[in-house]
Amino acid sequence: MTARPAGPPGLRRFREPPPPETPRCEMCAEPLEERHGHVVNVQTRALLCTCRGCSLVMPGSGPGARYRGVPERHLLLPGFRLTAADWEALQIPVRAAFFFPHSVLGRYVAFYPSPAGAAESLLPLDAWDDVLAANPEAPRPLPDVEAYLVDRGPERLTCHLVPIDACYELVGLVRLHWKGFHGGPEAWRAIDGFFAEIRARAEAEAGVYGEGRRA
Ligand SMILES: [Zn+2]
Ligand SMILES: [Zn+2]
């Protein structure tokens, strides 16, 4: 049943706010659920909000593929060998950073969250190559769409393998909540909550690799 607004139809638009724009899939224009998928445009690095069908665009569907669907796996890598000295060598100025294979550049790139958005680490990543070499059996992120996300928590370093959109979610949280020089309690609560959620998802997916080889 439709409610018929009273009064002459010509006046309706002055009284009723326009309906909020329904978010739509940026590839096929289908209306989107709040929980939706993402696709990376490999050339521009843009992350597109997509429906489930479009986010199933197969990753690595041929070299030069322009779009890659972001997969959903979340893995905890407790056996990942990454020491405090490695972290020092990487010179990441903050608590967390993500590293992913960039298919166009043909190498890993590193980013970290900052109050202004994602900041790229411009240091040469030789130190990261050493970390990879020390972890030959660790599952590798799919180019452009997955990343190693490292959290230098108060007690130890933790490495996760997550979808790239999760990294940008963390970037968004930092950008939204960070205050002053040290972030403030709200920012730290958001960051801790984010990592707790990643851990819970990995455990729910049974995505824990290398348990027992904790350094
Ligand atoms: Zn779509
Ligand atoms: Zn989205």
From TrEMBL:
Superkingdom of source: Bacteria
Name of the protein: Uncharacterized protein
One Pfam short name: DUF5947
Positions of region (Disordered): 1-22
